[in-house]
Amino acid sequence: MFYEPKDGHGLPHNPFNAIVTPRPIGWISSRGTDGSDNLAPYSFFNAVAYEPPQVMFSSTSTKPDRGDTKDSVSNIRETGVFAVNIVEYAMRDAMNQTSGPWGREVDEFVDAGIEKAACRTIDCASVAGAPAVLECRVTQIIKIEGDANFAVFGEVVGVQMRDDCMVDGAFDVTRFQPLARGGYRDYSVVRDVFQLDRPA
């Protein structure tokens, strides 16, 4: 099969997300200037640089109470900071609950029964007990093709790692089993890892 996206795919569901998979989930927490907290998962998320460490996520839809974007981008525009909470398999249901189309007045931490913790380098809440949290300062918000598409880039200025995920000085993902997004309504979980040596 071949299709050009501009002409449509003719399938019951868009296959694009199923092709680019698995995708790590950036569980983004942000805070508005009014002190309201927001927590939402984004599967268009990844690390993009080592030095300095940087990450990005993309928001691709709007909410009627946020104009041209959603709560996360709106809050980040106001404050210039956000946190990336790494999602473990054990928190899959809580993460899913925070993906709902809730109004801006809803605190997803409270709605999903998630305990908050304070970030150390930025004024933002994080998910207490998350395997890792990346505290970020915005470097760029870029409008990309599409009416509601914004790519948010941030420099990681603080890193929290849960002690039980550290093994012999390394962050061991098998200790918490990170959740990843597939296509459609599919998710996967990392339980097995292997190593390959790079060619000399």
Write the layout of secondary structure elements.
Blueprint (H helix, E strand, L loop, with lengths): L15 H4 L3 E2 L1 E6 L5 E6 L2 E5 L4 E6 L11 H9 L1 E6 L5 H6 L10 H4 L4 E3 L6 E3 L4 E12 L6 E12 L4 E2 L2 E2 L7 E3 L5 E3 L11
Antiparallel strand pairs: 1-13, 2-3, 2-6, 4-5, 5-10, 6-9, 7-8, 9-10, 11-12, 13-14
Short description:
The protein is mainly β. It is built from four helices and 14 strands. A hairpin with a 5-residue loop joins strand 2 and strand 3 (37-42).
What keyword list fits this structure?
three-stranded antiparallel β-sheet, Pnp Oxidase, Chain A, mainly beta, seven-stranded antiparallel β-sheet, globular, 200 residues
Structure description:
Pfam families: Flavin_Reduct. GO terms for molecular function: FMN binding; oxidoreductase activity, acting on the CH-NH group of donors, NAD or NADP as acceptor. It comes from Octadecabacter temperatus. This protein has helices spanning 16-19, 71-79, 92-97, 108-111, and strands spanning 23-24, 26-31, 37-42, 45-49, 54-59, 81-86, 116-118, 125-127, 132-143, 150-161, 166-167, 170-171, 179-181, 187-189. With 200 residues, it is mainly beta. It has one domain (22-189): Pnp Oxidase, Chain A (Roll), CATH 2.30.110.10. The protein has a seven-stranded antiparallel beta sheet with strand order 3-2-6-9-10-5-4, with helices on one face. The protein has a three-stranded antiparallel beta sheet with strand order 1-13-14, with no helix packed on it. The longest helix is centred in the middle third of the chain and has 9 residues, at 71-79. The radius of gyration is 17 Å and the shape is globular. The termini are far apart. The model has no long low-confidence stretch (mean pLDDT 96).
